[in-house]
Amino acid sequence: MRRIWRGLKLGMKSLLLHKLRSGLTVLGIVFGVAAVISMLAIAEGSSRDAQEQIKALGATNIIVRSVKPSDEAQASGGRPARILNYGIKYADYDRILATVPTIKKALPIREIRKQIRRLQHYLDGRVVGTTQDYADFNMLQVDRGRFLTAADNEKYQNYAVLAATTSKTLFPYEDPIGQSVKLGSDYYTVVGVTKERESSAGVGGSLAAQDFNKDVYIPLNTCRVRFGEKIVNSRSGSMEAEETQLSQITLQVATIEQVQPTVPIIKAAYEGEKFHPKKDVEMTVPYDLLLAAQRTARQFSIILGTIAAISLLVGGIGIMNIMLATVTERTREIGIRRALGAKRKDITQQFLIETVVLSGVGGLLGVSMGIAIPQIIVYFIPDQKAFVTGSSVMLAFSISVAIGILFGLYPARRAALMDPIEALRHE
């Protein structure tokens, strides 16, 4: 240890004799390490953001959703139907529950775009007819009052729970609890308000992005009675009518292992010419999407990490170049040390210590810069996610030290193999 410590002090002294050259050599490692950590942080942040969006749907959930059929599928006998009837029926819901034994919970949902009014205040939002389980399935938290209950649904109550933005828009200065809002031609008593929730991103091609902050939640049975199943929209003088019973069913199984076996059974309960010949129902399995997102994230991280590692390689080449020049400059010194009894391993050790010092200092500075850069990016681009992991820091620093040893080994061995007499004659 004493010999290594003496070699370290001698190496530092030698490197400080050429501060500019040593500093420029270190910069190659600094930028390489910083690039590896920053790129992996951005890749990890983007990956985690996407995976959180999918996890919000529930890894043990299976989502069956109504989709508007294509123009060809809409035509009936060569002519488009006057009333477009599509999507999940209550009969489908009952059949799925009766046929699939692994289902632990089921959440039926009916979504209707409506203007929500209260005196002179109004908001174009989404009326969601659902049950008491909706808040748990979608991770909604109640800010004031309460959420819907099973009794509200059974008794067809005209109760409503407002989302955060809906509440602020309709009741800017008042407490909404106990007040009334108008949906269509009916009035609903507000029993609760939910906290703000981040909008969900669109998943795959089957689920659109959802803004949970502009919703009104009412009991499903109340929605069925008050709004019916037929929605008429008037646009530019033309009348369009759609008939949909349920917009979505979210089915939950007990464990992740039950997801894959359950999927084909659910499909058999609603697919086929007998039930939905127009292909107006689609299924989304969040667990499958999560696995695909994780695979993509790993590939993305490998690609970015490889690109960033190239800059580390360039830094290593710079270290080798400088150390070869140093060996040439210090040929006479090497000859003197060998003449005084230094062994070849001592010479090799001395030059290796110097290269490790260069790469180690560069690695430490690069780690600091690599941790700071993602924070700066997130500060100026708030939508961009970045997450620095301990494994990426250790990986980048370890590679920087390994590159120092690898690229310093040849110059060190070249110095050690010099003939002492020829080295002493060197001018």
Automatic annotation (TrEMBL):
Q: Which UniProt keywords apply?
A: ATP-binding, Cell membrane, Hydrolase, Membrane, Nucleotide-binding, Transmembrane, Transmembrane helix
Which enzyme class, named as a word?
Answer: hydrolase
- A GO molecular function held by the record: transmembrane transporter activity
Pinpoint the ABC3 transporter permease C-terminal domain residues: 306-418
State if Transmembrane is listed as a keyword: yes
Segments crossing the lipid bilayer: 20-43, 302-328, 351-381, 387-410
Name where it's found: Cell membrane
Gene Ontology terms: cellular component: plasma membrane
UniProt xrefs under InterPro entries: ABC3_permease_C (IPR003838), MacB_PCD (IPR025857), Macrolide_Exporter_MacB (IPR050250)
Q: Where is the signal peptide?
A: none
The source's superkingdom equals: Bacteria
Topology in membrane: Multi-pass membrane protein
Q: What is its EC number?
A: 3.6.3.-
Ranges of residues in domain MacB-like periplasmic core: 22-258
- To which protein family does this belong? Belongs to the ABC-4 integral membrane protein family.
PANTHER family, alphabetized:
ABC TRANSPORTER PERMEASE YTRF, MEMBRANE COMPONENT OF TRANSPORTER-RELATED
Q: What is the name of this protein?
A: Macrolide export ATP-binding/permease protein MacB
Provenance organism: Paludisphaera borealis
The record's gene field reads: macB_2
